[in-house]
Amino acid sequence: MLLQQIVNGITIGSLYSLVALGLTMVYGIMRVLDIANAGAYTLGAYLGVWAYTRTHSIIIALLAGVGGAAITGYLFQRAVYTPIKKVADPIVPLVASIGLFIVMEDLFRLIAGPYTITFPVHLPLNRLTLGSVIITGTQAVILLVSAFLFLLLWILLNKTKIGLAWQATAQDVETAMAMGINTRSVVAFAFILGYAFAALAGILVAIHYNAVFPTMGDIPSYKMLAIVVLGGLGNPLGAVVASMVVGLAEALVAGYIGSFLPTDAIAFLALIILLLVRPQGLFASGGDAR
Amino acid sequence: MNYWAVLATTVGIWVLLALSLNIITGEAGQPNIGHAAFFGIGAYTSAILNTKYGVDFWGALIVAIAVSALVGAVLGLISMRLRNDFLAITTIGLNFVTVAVFQTVHYFGGAMGIGGIQPPRIGGLAFGTLEIAGLIWVVVALVVILNRHLQKAWFGYALRAIRDDEAAAAAMGIDVRRYKVLAFVIGTGLAGLAGSIYAHFMTFISAGDFGFNISVTILAMVVLGGRGSIPGVMLGGIVLGMAPEVFRFISDYRLLVFGSILVLVMRFFPSGLLGQGSRLQELLTGFIRREGAGARVR
Amino acid sequence: MKTLKFGLLMISLLVIALLASACGNGAGNTQSGAAKTIKIGFFAPETGPEAADGTSAYNSAKLAVEQINAGGGINGAKLELVNYDDQLDTKQAVSIAQKLTTRDGVAAVVSGSYSGPTRAAAPIFQQAKIPMISAYAVHPAIPRTGNYIFQQSFSGVVEGAAAAEVAKNELHAKNVAILAIDNDFGHTLVQGFKQRAAQTGLKVQEPNWFHFGDTEFTPVLTKIKDNGADVLFMPAYAAEGSQIIRRIHDMGLKIQPLGTEGLDSTTQFLEVAGKNANGLVIVTNLNRDSKEQVVKDFIKAYKEKYGHEPDMVGASTYDAFYVLAEAMRKSGVTPDKIRDGIANTKNFQAVTGKIEGYDKIGQVIKPVQVQQVKDGAFRYFGEITDPAIITPPVN
């Protein structure tokens, strides 16, 4: 059973990491705890299912969801976050992002209705049995797609000019500017990529659960904060590792101890304990303390 | 009449919560997005003392304040070790863990909540809705007086110095640790007080009453009204506290309006409606000065 | 500085006054009305986290009132629905209850909300002596508030006991695992299930609990699989229940799932679970294959008006209005008479089964329906009428 639970945990962790990556990309640059990123996750799912029911093409569904969310990210950044960011207190953009998230969720309900919409994509893989371990079709798809997306992000951040600029800016904004990096376009890049990633995660999760509903972003909206902090705010690799840790913890607790606490509380409990021992997080942040 | 008394009580509890968070977040500059945890700790302490051990409201109230303040002190000590954003997320975590404990531990009523909490009484008189409304607003008035007193005292200056620049404050010889913890103790103790009154007003509580969304609403009241400004925070508490009832006529769009208000105020009045340096506040100040001058001439 | 602070305080007071007057105007709309109308109060979580159930309840309330009025109303008088959205917030429910009792002048109230808001509002109606029917909230404390409060849905204990009976007699269970939601609904159902199972000698494992909003059930199902049960009793709601069913299928688990009324929704459950739901048995109050005209009419009218299948929440809310209408016709239209009328309900054919009546606490007595999913639809599987099971506990 242990091996099986490890597989289960890594699958859950993969899903978490896809959502967490978007958030940590934005944080790395802007130092904004962007709750509204979870709105992009839901937006991606809605746009995806809307496009899919009309075209029956998963590619178009992905493009619609990712494109719509990327545009939203860019608009939010230009209209809200960058102007607010001039105010020093980080609580201001946080409250604004909570407001944006509430507006988005209510718009989903008003436009698409309160009921769950299905996302009936048939996944091509069958159940795999390796000894005593079962890997279900959806698990296999999640693991493969996540691996592919991690690779994609790694290439983007390490092999492209804008990605390297993101890294440099996340490390130290002033030096990056002094080096001639156009921080404005890097900020826009972070939001576009961060929201696009959230949308991808939203679509994948919606297919996995065959469900799209207005409040599907509620739990990710705060749980991802815990994961992103665990991994060191603004550190993509850390976010992935932290997602896996939380996913494994949840699987093992559910499998061996039973549900002594709601699963969300487990992530936060882990976080609080960790921060007491290591106030800087599991890994150092992508950037400077302030 | 009863309807107004109930509304006044609800709004009063919100205002009290907003004032209490203001001491931590507005005056000492420490982010706290889990304030509902202390509201809940106060409510549960009071409810358990009342229903399980027969302690009356007044006794339970004192213990509720003490227990909340104690947990607040621990959080205050933790806040020393954490930088801003980490502290913000730790407080969210504290909120979730607290709610989870209320929800799962049988002693705290578990999933069924706690019912049958007695309303406050003095001698033979059991408090009705009107008396509870009176009680809460008397408490609010006392807290405002205390808070204004603190603001003017050394305590207030020390907190503002810490908020504006912690290192400089320490260099000036301010005992940062002591004042931060004190701000947490007072703020969370007052939240516990609000929780105790809430429990005895509702007579039935469950974990969901103290969730993360409540913390967000309290924070929104403080930030919207103006961090650090007592009239501002009260205004925030009154406006957002009444919003669910006032905006009933737009029924289906209430949440949309609430969210939009948050975004717009943060975008155009980032220090809150009546906060330091807000445009509205400058406008009002100018207006009042002119009015005041006119009055003196006459 | 003093004048500034004072001025600001005055302005805040002005704002309060303005808001208060706006508030007064909003409520004014509901105060007048035609001479011959009877006002029925209603509240449900129409926006916020449970907007889907709130919308179902509100839709059904509108439908019921419309139909009752179209059929001539109550001896010529029309019903008027006074609707409020509580956003699943107990504080709002208390304000709403005060408003309904002191300002709107309603004759009776239907709660289309969950246990929290319903329980918070109930004492206010009891004190004002205005009857309230809780359409689908299951908390046992609700009807125990007093003699003006009635519960239209089964006591959770009854539903749990009925499930245990189905597990033992229909599904021939030897060893039952439980996967239940950790709230009032889950706990009362598990309590009823375990009590009945103990009486009939059915082996039940320690319950596994999950929480509202959980999505990933593979880990706990892995554990259940290793403990070798043949029936899985799952008091869950549609969102979590559909995922449990999907994972059971994904993992190739050989276990017979046994659900409850929480899964009784076509849009929220059956469509999400898809073909994985086939074979699932649930205990509920809605028999979709019923030959009764009221059931057929309700399902048809709801589908025509709203474009999707009705669910258990909707059917229960709809019934609450018809129970009220019946009570008003037989007994009178003042709050006291309506209360007596509800208390004296006898063998009333409603959508959610034949209501035998309400016990002295105000809990409904009616048979439990057993349904099975076949080809993506709920179909008749059985009915439990044994008084030993369907009589709700009194203490």
From TrEMBL, chain A:
The keyword Cell inner membrane applies. It is a multi-pass membrane protein. GO terms for biological process: D-alanine transmembrane transport; L-alanine transport; L-isoleucine import across plasma membrane. GO terms for molecular function: L-isoleucine transmembrane transporter activity; L-leucine transmembrane transporter activity; L-phenylalanine transmembrane transporter activity; L-valine transmembrane transporter activity. It is found in: Cell membrane. The chain crosses the membrane at residues 6-28, 58-76, 88-112, 132-157, 186-212, 224-246, 253-277. Its main location: membrane. It holds the Pfam family BPD_transp_2. Keywords: Amino-acid transport, Cell inner membrane, Cell membrane, Membrane, Transmembrane, Transmembrane helix, Transport. The keyword Signal does not apply. GO terms for cellular component: plasma membrane. InterPro entries: ABC_transp_permease, BCAA_transport_permease. Belongs to the binding-protein-dependent transport system permease family. LivHM subfamily. This is ABC transporter permease. It comes from Desulfotomaculum copahuensis.
From TrEMBL, chain B:
It comes from Desulfotomaculum copahuensis. The keyword Transmembrane helix applies. This is ABC transporter permease. It comes from the Bacteria. InterPro entries: ABC_BtuC-like, ABC_transp_permease, LivM-like. It is a multi-pass membrane protein. The keyword NADP does not apply. One of its GO terms (cellular component) is plasma membrane. One of its GO terms (molecular function) is branched-chain amino acid transmembrane transporter activity. The chain crosses the membrane at residues 6-25, 32-51, 57-79, 86-105, 125-146, 181-202, 214-243, 255-274. CDD domains: TM_PBP1_LivM_like. It is found in: Cell membrane. Keywords: Cell membrane, Membrane, Transmembrane, Transmembrane helix. Its main location: membrane.
UniProtKB/TrEMBL annotation, chain C:
InterPro entries: BCAA_transport, Leu-bd, Leu_Ile_Val-bd, Peripla_BP_I. Residues 1-22 form the signal peptide. The keyword Secreted does not apply. This is Leucine-binding protein domain-containing protein. Keywords: Amino-acid transport, Signal, Transport. Residues 37-376 form the Leucine-binding protein domain. The lineage of its organism: Bacteria, Bacillati, Bacillota, Clostridia, Eubacteriales. One of its GO terms (biological process) is amino acid transport. PROSITE patterns: PROKAR_LIPOPROTEIN. Belongs to the leucine-binding protein family.
